[in-house]
């Protein structure tokens, strides 16, 4: 049932993109969840959230980036340098974090240094503020307009507010369906494994959205559920993750990831765009308010509240706080979360990892197994009359 | 952290040490020489600073800065934790005391042989990442451990420019549950909507500071501070002229004094006095055709395109003098007033700030623009090869100072520069400047020992035939 989602999620290019490209449909990549796909959808362009999967060498990325940079953007750059993203007609770079925003220069300079056609024809630096105020929302509305002007001019397209409204409504419907999917693992007992759920989310960022929507509809109508009762219920928090193997490694045979706040995950879908508002303003508001990323400085308390709410709703037994090495934003926030959640009596495990092929699989498994043992003991103690 | 370290507040210790250091020259030469015997760890930095005529005042100024922090609450003033790239002028205008993390870290690494190692590590104990920038962690560790003057509020202006910086302040505010304000920086500098954003954001900051301090912004005081800043800019402009001469008519520490002083006391008369002393020394040396470094002759000149190396005893500056290397400036010593020499030479007025003191609106616009042109805030906000960004600034300044080579030095925590410094170096090499990337940590010798850093630097100079 999930094979198709896994196939799409675990590859860079896929048959849906290939077919769409053959029909002349354009595809634009983007680097950060603060970019509103709705605009591209309304223009008939496929939005593609770039992934860093299955990189076996960082030869080019290490030459461009310095040594103290998170391996996720490095993997993205390597894919660009290897020509894996040659199907993209454009790329939107967002200052999600310092490492990610430097993709801008690294792609352009790599193209020059290696004399390779790795820069997509359409290139846009999309500036998203780090806070929510009246003037930062206005800034983002202007930025959205600048993006629309730029993309329509580049691809000779005409923009329509009506179509944008339709796309906003479509994305809200899709979010609703994904919320239903998410509920399957959040409810007790969980009926879908975390890895399967993540496969669906990641696939959804890598293919034409209308097709994805019908696949999700079909999944929800036919899926009868898996019995995952008795597994320890975990929540996963921290750095971006598009790697399903990582979720599988955490779940193993004894746990299930019933909730997460990860980029590429359901946090992309939980907030709706106000369809009664002026479309650009509504989009700016939704994407800025959708602040589950520590790039929105000063928003820790709100994020903590959301985490606690998810823990209660999903009856989470333990929280895994992970960050990719050199991801200071999530690393530091994980420190705060560990302090505050442990104080509330919620067991936490902090993990630092590398992004990419799981070279440290056994080391990580050992720590997770020990954590699960801790949860087992806790359950025994708590259940004791 | 060792219990012993918790016996005294770290800022109090620093204050007493700098205070004593600033008085060393008050006695006779003999008394001074004897005193040095009793301060084995401190004598090298003291001697290095006193090589400049402005050295004593620089130490006094540092002691005053620390005195303000240590006694802030006793004097009824609020403390505002902030960052080096945030102009403290507005904090002074609201009669509060700035507590700049990076300055405190440097003050400590200069003096103490052990540096700030244990405070750096304490940040990790508190949950902060070890990969974050050491410039904040060095003193933040002490404040997290409550061995410093309590902080009343936190302000940073690095979001959009430097994540690790912004993240440190955001972490501290969350950890201590303190009021927090961030100024955002868009990735461009000169568009009208960018200016509008800077000004609106700055007005929100003023409202935040007024609320936290319980004081209304005093317009006359702000005007006075901005007028003083204008004076300081003029003095810096004159110093910039001297710093372009070869051989250098000023001590190699001049650049350090310029930026450290400005980070401590922008718009305050004590900083004006420091600049006046430096200018007088420059004028005198130029008149006498004598150089400011106390070595044989300037063999080569470097431009540091980022920051300096601050570990114990000002060894970077000692080394430069020993190797007869001239050092005129780095990216930190530039504040981009419209009258600043590189601005005039390159017709970059649109990227500079101008100070207008007519109305409150004029003043707020001016101070917002000053802040948005602070070191790093101006140049490293957008892609490094965009107009008015790092590459353009580096090449213009290196040319203006007649540098023979460029050096990058930072910290492993500096994600915003390590994301593209190799590319920058390729471009500066293409432009004809041999460029050396230091892999050291400017604030922590445990990452790479100073000996290794120096060996590699000297190797670069030899291989590129610069000495």
Total number of helices of chain A: 16
Secondary-structure element string of chain B? HHHHEHEHHHEHEHHHHEHEHHHEHHEH
The largest sheet of chain B is:
4 strands, parallel
Termini separation of chain A comes to 42 Å
Shape of chain A: globular
Helix content of chain B: 40-55%
Assembly category: heterodimer
The CATH architecture name of the domain at 3-217 in chain B reads 3-Layer(aba) Sandwich
Q: Which geometry of chain B do the CA atoms define?
A: globular
Mean pLDDT of chain A: 94
Radius of gyration of chain B: 21 Å
| DSSP strand count of chain B | 8
Q: What is the largest interface, and how many residues per chain? A: A-B, 49 and 51 residues
Class inferred from helices and paired strands of chain B? alpha/beta
H/E series of chain A:
HHEHEHHEHHEHHHHEHEHHEHEH
Structure characterization notes:
The complex is a heterodimer of chains A (385) and B (467). Chain A is α/β, with parallel strands linked by helices and 385 residues long. Chain A has 16 helices and eight strands. Chain A has helices at 3-9, 15-22, 37-42, 59-64, 71-81, 98-101, 103-114, 134-155, 161-186, 194-204, 209-222, 244-251, 279-289, 300-313, 328-343, 361-383; strands at 27-30, 46-49, 90-93, 122-125, 232-238, 255-260, 318-324, 348-353. The mean pLDDT of chain A is 94. Chain B is 52% helix and 7% strand. The termini of chain B are far apart. At the A-B interface, helix 6, helix 7, helix 8 and helix 15 of A face helix 9, strand 4, helix 10, helix 18 and helix 19 of B.
